[in-house]
Amino acid sequence: MILTTTTVILVLNIYSSEIKLDAKNGLENPVLRAHYKDFLNRIPEERITMYYFEYDLNSDGLMDKIVFILSPEHLGTGGHGFYILLNNGDGSFEEVTGMIIHFIKAYERGDAELYISRKKTNGLHDIIIKDRVTIFYEDGRMRPKMD
Predict the structure, then answer these.
(1) Strands 79-87 and 99-101, how do they pair?
(2) What is the rounded distance in angstroms from the CA atom of residue 66 to the CA atom of residue 99?
(3) What residues does each domain of the chain span?
(4) Rounded to an integer, what distance in angstroms lies between the CA atom of residue 132 and that of residue 135?
């Protein structure tokens, strides 16, 4: 599957047309453990924080995953790992994004929330997080656009 654009919108005001999602511990999810097994074999688990959210982002009837990873390998000056995994329907997932973004520490403090917009960009529901950055997935790269 080739995606041309998906949008992550970081906003300060959340409107009632969005759906709030709650995070789950990714280290407790066997599907994510299998998907990230090479990484999990390299880094001690006590140095990893992984949260995920589930939603059918492309309306195909399958639950996709929005994953945030904080670890020595998923950390940069811009934040930590952010990934969208689309469900292939056969137990596997296609990783369609990979970028650095701030979220985990703010989420743990209760300062950040993740919402799914009813609006879609190129067939995927937009993802909304508190802040003011729009991020486009285009030509295999994530590109931030400051509003």
Answers:
(1) antiparallel
(2) 12
(3) 7-146
(4) 10
